[in-house]
Amino acid sequence: MRLDVDIKSKAFESASGKRHQVLSDVSLSLSAGEVAVFVGPSGCGKSTLLRILAGLDHDFEGTVSRPQQARLGMVFQEPRLLPWRSVDDNVRLAAPLADEVTLSNLFNILELTAHRSHFPGELSLGLARRVALARAFAVDPDFLILDEPLASLDRALAARLRDQIATLVANRSAMTLLVTHELDDAIRLGDRLFFLSPRPARILHVVPIITPRAARNDMEVDRIRADLALLHLAAD
Amino acid sequence: MLRLLSLVIFLATWWIAALLAGSTKLPAPAAVMRVVISEAASGALFLNIGVTLARVALAFTLAITIGIALGYLMGRVRLANRLGDPWLILLLNLPALVVIVLAYIWAGLTEVAAIAAIAINKVPATIVTVREGTRALDTSLDEMAQVFAIPRWRAFRHVVLPQLAPYIAAAARSGLSLVWKIVLVAELLGRPNGVGFEIGVAFQLFDTPRLLAYALSFAAVVLVIETVLVQPFEARLTRWRLRAA
């Protein structure tokens, strides 16, 4: 299972007819079990890139090859749950093949067990985000895309959720793509960090993180952060 | 309680108006009630109302099914909308009477003609409402369904249909009241039974008690169906909204 991306250019036409280039020369490849993290300033085109990789946008120059039969799991920036279906049904609808043991295990890790019969309108944003995560993991994805899954959550909650994501990623051999603008999250979760330029986005630097994910304690994260600072990449 | 009071006031007003207008123009409630009872005893009342209800059910189901399908298509596909829109405007503004008369001329004085004519009157409004709903669909949820490769039919049922539900309910609600009215005209013009036919006969004989007996019995049935079937159904569709905090 392997993802090869070679995007030459992606442009939007604005309402006034002007062309805005969003992406230029983004090429990378990703293999099973690897976590790639895109770090870049907001508005640089990260979400556009993810939409192309998810197969939602075909209007670009270049090629993206991902295995046809690959199961895709995605967490969008907003939870995108069906408000008229319970938490349980939301997850089951996306993952009809998931068995009860897998699901209850997943709900357990994400601390959602008490909320399975609730409707999304009854959940806080943090909970809704977790349901979106549960849905993405429930399909047992070969290819997992996480678009700022921790944005606009308070620090403590974001940290807990990040650890939960780490646990879930560790048990799988999925290709994972994570987008974030928090360097801490990137360092704790990623195997390779791709630093993107402001719009039009291109890859500035690729930084592998060699320390095993389990060994990335606060001290280690600070050390990696200091190393990155030397590359003038840590500033956002 | 308030409903009962309003009914009592209605009957009282009727009684007084009947006294003032004279029994040929407006018979008293009791006189009408006597006709209702005798028609019910002979079974004719139930037969005629039953036949009319069957026509309503058939025409309504047909119209709403076709209307949802075409409205969804026109909301999703630009070409379909371009092609269909002139026809839609024509049909929306075509008087019901014209459709009914033409249907009887072309298809004969048959049951098929009657039901088709009623359905055709109702389809355009359904299309317009459902098309509006389709245009308002949340594309972010469509993308979600696409990413998770939810099969088309399942996505339609769980993602699209709940969003269309309020529009379909609105179309059904306004459509039903339209069908209630048109069905009587269609029966009056070309059917040998049904409430509309009986009202036509009563009109020719200037038999006001009979006319009112059928009209009010029919109205009562409509009222019962609206409160017992339509309103609970609407409440069920929007259940998830009520539970949201």
How does this model look, in words?
The complex is a heterodimer of chains A (about 240) and B (about 240). Chain A is α/β, with parallel strands linked by helices and about 240 residues long. Chain A folds into two domains: about 1-70 and about 140-230, Rossmann fold (3-Layer(aba) Sandwich); about 80-140. Chain A contains seven helices and nine strands. Chain A has helices at about 45-55, 85-95, 100-110, 125-140, 155-170, 185-190, 220-230, and strands at about 1-15, 20-30, 35-40, 60-65, 70-75, 145, 175-180, 190-195, 205-210. Chain A has a six-stranded mixed beta sheet with strand order 5-6-7-3-8-9, with helices on both faces. A three-stranded antiparallel beta sheet of chain A has the order 2-1-4, covered by helices on one side. Chain B has about 240 residues and is mostly helical. Chain B has one domain: MetI-like (MetI-like fold). In chain B, about 85% of the residues lie in helices and about 0% in strands. The interface of A and B includes residues 56, 72, 80, 83 and 89 of A.
Name of the CATH homologous superfamily of chain B? MetI-like
Mean pLDDT of chain B: 90
E-strand count of chain A: 9
Task: Give the CA-CA distance, first to last residue of chain B.
Answer: 31 Å
The percent of residues in helical segments of chain A reads 25-40%
The CATH topology of the largest domain in chain A is Rossmann fold
Number of strands of chain B: 0
What fraction of residues of chain B sit in β-strands? under 5%
Number of domains as seen in the coordinates of chain A: 2
The second-level CATH architecture of chain B is Orthogonal Bundle
- Radius of gyration based on Cα positions of chain A: 18 Å
Largest sheet of chain B: none
What integer value in Å does the Rg of chain B equal? 22 Å
Summarize the helix and strand pattern of chain B as letters.
HHHHHHHHHHH
- Global outline of chain A: globular
Largest sheet of chain A: 6 strands, mixed
